[in-house]
Prior knowledge:
Helix content: 40-55%
CATH class of the largest domain: Mainly Alpha
Number of domains: 3
Number of strands: 11
Order of helices and strands: HHHHHHHHHHHEEHEEHHHHHHEEHEEEEE
Strand order of the largest sheet: 6-5-11-10
Radius of gyration: 27 Å
Distance between the termini: 81 Å
Amino acid sequence: MKNTKIILRAAIAAVLCAVALAHGAQAKVYTADEIADAIRGILAYELSQNGYDSVQSWLDSGTVSEWYAIGLRQSGEKLDFSKYGEALKEIYQMSGARSPALSQKYALALIFAGRGEDEEISRIAGETIGAQGIISYIFGLHLITNGAQPENHNAESVISEILALQLADGGWALSGAASDVDITAMAIQALAPYYGQNIDVKAAVDRALGLLSERQLEDGGFASLGSPNAESAAQVIVALSSLGVDIQQDERFVKGTNTAIDGLLKYRRHDGSFAHAEGGEYNQSATSQAYYSLVAYLRCLGGRTPLYVLDDEDAPLSPGVLPGQEEAEKGADTTNPDTADISDTDLPDASDEHGASGKGGYKIWVILGIVSAAAIVISLFWLTGRRNPKNFIFIIALATAACVIVSFVEIRAPEEYYTGAPKTKENAIGSVALIIRCDVLVGVATDEHIPADGVILPETEFLISEGDTVYDVLIEAARAYGIHTDTRGTNYIAGIANIYELDYGDLSGWTYLVNGESPSVGCGEYVLKSGDKIEWVYTLALGDDIR
Length: 547
């Protein structure tokens, strides 16, 4: 009998432990208040950085990006968009050549600024739908959903085109046979209003949701072209919220104890802004996308329309998403150490065991200096009578940590980092050609970094070893010819030759081609073979203008 009681107690204890562990393993659920706090933090940061004391004055200035304007309109807060709409039209009319996607973005912002009756919107939709591949179909459908009536398209025809572009793995991409998380999420956002009305749409979206669930990372986030980033998580949050799916509750999108909200908020900086890569500096695109994705999620919680479907409700999303006047005036902390310039990559040669110069002797002297300084401080403590062992332990621990840091950090002068010529490789399996160009900027932009012919590096041959990637060759070229590169996150190229993504519009940045094709994987994942031709090209329209 006694043994039976012991066994029973043990069983009950085991059950209770299992329940406790299961409860502890549950994902954190962020409340609407916490989401609204993050939204207010973003707006407070933007107000502080742009010098405005309220969201309304910022909006009136006309300098608010279209993405913020759409998010602000859908926040339900009582804001006057009249001046913004006027400024938007003026800026668009004054600007020069515009890509289809940029024109669609303008037309969509015009609708959300209260100018949906403008005939220009339907004209733009008619001229741009299908003119720039999948992106122009996605945003063209957004325009039609919100009232645009182009003569040559309707919702059914555009939906048909989007469904026809769905790839075998269930998603969508700008090019190639492998789906991209961002483009897949954006396609779902456009199709969401028709999900319950069209069985073909439902089937396609369900397949795409399965793909997104499979692609979700263990930390709850998502990656695009092999690089985890804030924007990918934001786009998935908008997509699921557009379908009325609570991304914190749906088991398909909970990995371990993490949801897509966790996957997004990990990129949040202490000043309220967001970085593209974890631990990185402020990124305009990441911050604006984080903003409107959180607005989209609050709309989902409140049973409101999707982010890209304008409604007439002006009731704020509880508990409201505008920063208070006092908070806005206080501003954000602008002394963030994360904003230090880390533009130049510092990638050691794997064959060099002693650092960039092959000497590594400077480390010995730095370490000796640290040890000497620690010895002097210990001596001073001893002579002044402060002989508490804790003081000595702290100093020794601090000096040890400093020595460890010095051991792992490489300090290089530019002349040591840049080699002056491509490497000779004894184990080479062949060679590839590399070109770096930004010719789309010639005659469009005036910048000292833009060559007259747009060619940063003419066609140049590089030896490759087994397993070398597009990223490896780019970095070798940068070192050989003194070309500035800015790598962020996992092999994500933000800038080359001091020309950066987003410098020339929301769709601008660097992309690469191999043998004239745009791969569906990141540059650090594309393994080269002998004879490949690599082109790094600056694009103004997500690559559509260089293909």
